[in-house]
Amino acid sequence: VFISNLIPLYVLVMIAIRRYHRRLYVAYTTFWAIGGLLAMQVRFIGANHVTSHELLAFNTVWLGLQAWELLMWLKARTTTAQFSRAISTALLTAVGSVVGGVVVLTLAGKMTPWTGRFWTLLDPTYAKKYIPIIASVSEHQPTTWATYVFDVHLLVFGAPAGLYFCFKTLSDSQLFLITFALTAIYFSGIMIRLMLVAAPAFVLLGSLAVSTTLYTYAAHLRETAPEEAEPAAGSAAAAAAAAPPALKRSKSKSASKSFTQLPYKREMAFTVCAMLCFGLISYTRHCNWVTSEAYSSPSIVLISGWGPHRVVLDDFREAYYWLRHNTAPDARIMSWWDYGYQITSMANRTVIVDNNTWNNTHIATVGRAMSSNESAAYEIMRKLDVDYVLVIFGGASGYSSDDINKFLWMVRIGGGVYKDYMQ
Q: Which of 102, 131, 336, 356 could form a disulfide with 116 if both were Cys (CB 3.0 to 4.6 A apart)?
């Protein structure tokens, strides 16, 4: 969805700054046709690539480009008066047809509406107000500065410099990088899961900043010392004296635009290059450590501490093992939805709710049971035909993401459906 909306946004930016050309039309039309056909081969996507509101911009921009090229074709073959009448009629007809078609298809149920996650990206408070099940997911929480520094390290400071260099020499490719980076970084600040989308933008901007800086300062390192440059300067002055007047004027103009010679310029260049090399080495070591330690452990095995003080918490796997070997094969387990897939796959038991959060009412029922008193919760569990209840408590081990920590979300999600019972 992000890529299918990013490229139409780039096309609109190119049109807004008057950089539209025929190559852009050919590229986007090809991408729309081939990319759309390939995406529709995925069973999960299918016809949603055409009928989804979330991809409305992807298809509307394509229609707009076809209409524009058709008008340009008519302009070349008609008079000015005829073209003026044709363009006004065509614009009204096209806009009316698109808006009317979308409204009719939406009312008929042929187009899928925008999801809560999509509205949350435009309004970060939307999910918390209207769909608490989305806001309760940890990967949907806003990204903190500590997460940015931990995930991308040095690139947090390299990205702004890369944006500056992009704006300094603005080209079509750099304009696409700017559009991609600004949208990706903005969305990553709303949902932590979108750091996966922002990471390539940080890498591209950081690499641009590092390469441009190294190229600039490495040139100063290659310059000859003043003592070695004196004979060459004398020969250059003699050649300039014998040059034609026009050439002398051009050389003096270019000399006036050159930077003033700074003292210790080579030493400063060496310092900057050394600092960059040290930063890149530190960045490499940090990436290796994060990959091996933070992002390579299974989610059911928790590790805390370092070195001889490391503690491995294997309670999740042991709990699922106990369920597998000490309950009936047809037992039904009620737990909060976070653990649904793990219980199904590792304990091989049926769960009431799992990580497929489309059924908000079912999850709200479990939330109501979890947050009610014993007598009310017992009645709800009997209606759901529950045999066992799994509750995660992390007080003894210091695990902060237990069910007590999630209790407020159980109340919010349950109260969103059962407003008469939960306030």
A: 131
DSSP 180-228: HHHHHHHHHHH-GGGHHHHHHHHHHHHHHHHHHHHHHHHHHHTSPPHHH
Helices 2-16 and 172-190, packing angle to 10 deg: 130
Segment 345-359, tens digit of pLDDT: 999 999 999 888 777
- For residue 347, give the nearest of 388, 317, 310, 387 by alpha carbon: 317
pTM score, whole prediction = 0.76
DSSP 52: B
Strands 332-334, 302-304: pairing is unpaired
Sign of the CA dihedral with 355 first, then 356, 357, and 363 last: negative
Q: Where are the alpha helices (DSSP H) in 261-403?
A: 265-289, 315-326, 340-342, 360-371, 374-383
One-letter amino acid identity for 372?
S
CA–CA gap between residue 361 and residue 260 (Å, rounded): 71
The pLDDT tens digits for 170-216 are 889 999 999 999 999 999 988 888 898 999 999 999 999 999 999 98
Instruction: Answer yes or no: are the C-beta atoms of 53 and 112 closer than 8 Å.
Output: yes
SS3 content of the chain, % helix, strand, coil (to 5): 70, 5, 25
The DSSP code sequence of 316-342 is HHHHHHHHHHHS-TT-EEE--GGGHHH
Rounded to an integer, what distance in angstroms lies between the CA atom of residue 137 and that of residue 367? 14
Please give the Cα distance from 397 to 411 (Å, whole number): 25
Q: Indicate the helix (H) or strand (E) that contains 411.
A: helix 407-417
